[in-house]
């Protein structure tokens, strides 16, 4: 009679592949990371292509902000030079699109703070006077401003700040067809033409600004060391609270 190994006839449960258990979450995480990178890359492209000029008196980029859930929008607004950034070279004015660093002693403090307010549901907006920039698509100064702000947006994206608005008030060109002197004056801080444009953009979306919970941060506060009080007056004219970078960050 044939001999049979009884134990070999009993089916054994398959060995558990411990590595396969780990692969599922890591694969899912990897896929999520890829999706996030592609999504952010698309937002970067959209922001880069979203620049527009209104006459010669206004430069803006309102391309990346998604649908705003609340009817009343909290605005976290910032000046650019001397508030969000300083020159990397130490020069008073930027020497090129890459000549900037985050404001403050810590390289992460400023973007982390902006990210905090973005995550709290604030609309992040930059309002900046750019008296050396001409709003002309062939202008090197305009090209450099766009390039610098594209870099700033890319860096903010690393801190999960996915969307911002940018408003810049350029100088009046000396030649060619231009906006009126009055239009240029109204969009230059401390006048609030750029703020009023934001109000109009939000109104088109059926939104209003939550003034009580909105604020503006700027370095031109009228202190002894300041070149002017244009940022302080801008916030006052817009009827929102004001902070200096030293107070806010």
Q: Your description of this structure?
A:
This protein has 249 residues and is of the alpha/beta class. Helix content is 38%, strand content 18%. It contains eight helices and eleven strands. The protein has helices at 6-9, 18-48, 109-119, 140-157, 181-186, 193-204, 230-238, 245-248; strands spanning 51-54, 58-61, 72-73, 75-78, 85-86, 101-102, 123-134, 165-171, 208-209, 215-217, 241-243. The strands form three sheets. It has a seven-stranded mixed β-sheet with strand order 1-2-8-7-4-10-11, with helices on both faces. Strands 3-9 form a two-stranded parallel ribbon. Helix 2 (18-48) packs antiparallel against helix 4. The model is unreliable at 6-10 (pLDDT under 50).
Write the layout of secondary structure elements.
Layout: H1 6-9, H2 18-48, E1 51-54, E2 58-61, E3 72-73, E4 75-78, E5 85-86, E6 101-102, H3 109-119, E7 123-134, H4 140-157, E8 165-171, H5 181-186, H6 193-204, E9 208-209, E10 215-217, H7 230-238, E11 241-243, H8 245-248
Parallel strand pairs: 3-9, 4-7, 4-10, 7-8, 10-11
Antiparallel strand pairs: 1-2, 2-8, 5-6
């Amino acid at each position: 009679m044939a001999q049979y190994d009884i134990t070999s006839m009993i089916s054994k449960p398959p060995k558990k592949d411990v590595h396969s258990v780990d692969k599922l979450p890591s694969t899912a995480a990897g896929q999520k990371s890829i999706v996030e990178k592609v999504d952010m890359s698309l937002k970067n492209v959209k922001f880069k292509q979203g620049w527009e000029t209104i006459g010669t008196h206004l430069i803006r980029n309102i391309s990346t902000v998604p649908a705003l859930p609340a009817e009343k929008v909290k605005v976290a607004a910032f000046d650019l030079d001397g508030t969000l950034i300083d020159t990397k070279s130490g020069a008073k004015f930027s020497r090129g699109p890459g000549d900037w660093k985050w404001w403050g002693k810590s390289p992460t403090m400023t973007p982390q703070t902006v990210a905090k307010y973005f995550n709290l549901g604030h609309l992040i907006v930059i309002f900046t006077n750019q008296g050396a920039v001409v709003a002309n698509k062939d202008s090197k100064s305009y090209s450099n401003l766009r390039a610098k702000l594209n870099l700033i947006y890319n860096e903010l994206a690393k801190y999960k700040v996915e969307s911002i608005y940018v408003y810049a008030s350029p100088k009046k060109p000396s030649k060619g067809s231009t906006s009126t002197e009055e239009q240029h004056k109204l969009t230059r801080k401390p006048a609030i033409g750029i703020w009023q444009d934001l109000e109009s953009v939000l109104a088109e979306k059926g939104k209003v600004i939550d003034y009580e919970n909105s604020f503006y941060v700027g370095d031109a506060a009228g202190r002894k060391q300041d070149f002017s009080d244009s940022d302080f007056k801008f916030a006052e004219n817009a009827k929102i609270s004001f902070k200096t970078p030293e107070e806010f960050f």
